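Backbone-to-sequence.
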């Protein structure tokens, strides 16, 4: 008869191995949309009476590639090139980024009357992103986030779409909803599409 401690340790080891297998590439990989990768860099663009929105997808910079390589080299030196840590770092390193900006087209008084906002890109899809902020909430950059001076959100994409996120396909049309508190006329929707 085996002791309860040995059985518990064997059970924990089995669960650990199952979880490690699932998280270390045990799932199926998925390729990013080839047409979109070939179009990089590209911008999804939308506009209505009050807003201009742009979601720009680019490859990471050479500096970012060098930084990732330095990290990989450190892990390789410490754990080996065939270690799970090395493979996971290599797999999860982003190779593309997305930067979303929104610009309010109203005047300064109208902008100042917006007290909070919630912006949802591609609601209900695999590409959904939500950004929300309230004026005077202690977060810096409220006006800058609505005037295109700073991004509303950024995203990172790996070569394998099942790892981080899927790149929004270049040939798609994406709904953007903007809800505001204060200047009610600014609330609304627009469609974002590829712009040459």
């Amino acid at each position: 008869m085996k002791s309860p401690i040995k059985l518990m340790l064997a059970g924990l080891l089995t669960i650990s191995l199952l979880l490690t297998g699932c998280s270390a590439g045990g799932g199926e990989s998925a390729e990013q949309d080839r047409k979109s990768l070939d179009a990089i860099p590209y911008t999804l663009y939308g506009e209505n009476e009050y807003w201009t929105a742009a979601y720009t997808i680019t490859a990471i910079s050479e500096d970012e590639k060098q930084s990732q390589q330095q990290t990989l080299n450190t892990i390789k030196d410490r754990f080996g090139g065939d270690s799970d840590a090395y493979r996971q770092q290599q797999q999860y390193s982003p190779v593309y980024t997305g930067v979303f900006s929104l610009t309010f087209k109203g005047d300064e008084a109208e902008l100042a009357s917006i007290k909070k906002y919630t912006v949802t890109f591609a609601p209900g899809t695999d590409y959904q992103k939500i950004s929300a902020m309230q004026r005077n909430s202690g977060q810096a950059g409220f006006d800058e986030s609505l005037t295109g001076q700073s991004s509303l959100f950024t995203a990172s994409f790996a070569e394998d779409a099942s790892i981080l996120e899927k790149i929004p396909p270049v040939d798609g049309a994406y709904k953007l909803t903007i809800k505001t508190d204060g200047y009610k006329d600014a609330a609304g929707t627009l469609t974002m599409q590829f712009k040459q």
